[in-house]
Amino acid sequence: MAIPVPAQTRVTPVTASSLEHFNTAPADEAVEALLTCLNSHHWAHRLAAHRPYPDLPALLAAADEAAYDLSPDDLTEALAAEALPALPADTYAAAHTALGAATAVYESRFGHAFVICLDGMPANEALDHALEGIRSRLANDPEEERGVAAEELRHLARARLADSLSSAAP
Questions:
Q1: Measured between alpha carbons, how far is 142 from 139 in angstroms, rounded to an integer?
Q2: N or C: which terminal CB in the chain sees fewer CB atoms within 10 Å?
Q3: CA 81, chain centre distance (Å)
Q4: pLDDT tens-digit readout, 78-88
């Protein structure tokens, strides 16, 4: 399950130099960086092949377009790489148990990891939002849920891509 600890605010903006580094990096380095945002080789190679990007909005638009075009196999590859991140240290044991149980039910029903983008959500609301998301999405049929999961992956990839360029800023 992919539940990133949400950032309250982005402190480091994406700079021209971090985008320039991405644009000029060797293709294999760019692909590896992109795979940390969304583990789809097709998606990563497509974005790397279309460099350079004039600005972050252009890169994010290309990332969205490529994510919309994920084949069922690409989506399976990306979902297989998602994992439960560390929860905040002050999360109660009962919350860990509830999240683990809900995740197990979800994965048993749909055969893939639960993904939800919590980017920008206050940390104190993230766990409740994730549990609510799992519970409500368990009512989906498998095909409908695969579409919802693909959309959440697109949001995650977008947030991770922006964050990776922000953290790469000198």
A1: 9
A2: C
A3: 10
A4: 999 997 655 66
Neighbours of 123 (CB within 10 A): 15
Answer whether 0.85 is exceeded by the pTM.
no
Q: Which of 20-24, 56-60, 83-87, 148-152 has the lowest mean pLDDT?
A: 83-87
The domain that contains 21 carries what CATH number?
1.10.3330.10
Domain membership of residue 44 as a residue range: 16-77+155-167
Total domains present in the chain? 1
Tokens of 152: 């959440």
Q: What are the C-alpha distances in Å from 25 to residues 19, 49, 71, 114? A: 10, 12, 27, 32
46 domain-assigned: yes
Closest CA relative to residue 62, chosen from 32, 18, 23, 16: 23
Distance CA 59, CA 120 (A): 20
Query: Structure tokens of 138?
Result: 């368990």
The phi-psi region of residue 111 (left if phi > 0; otherwise alpha if psi is between -120 and 50; otherwise beta) is: left
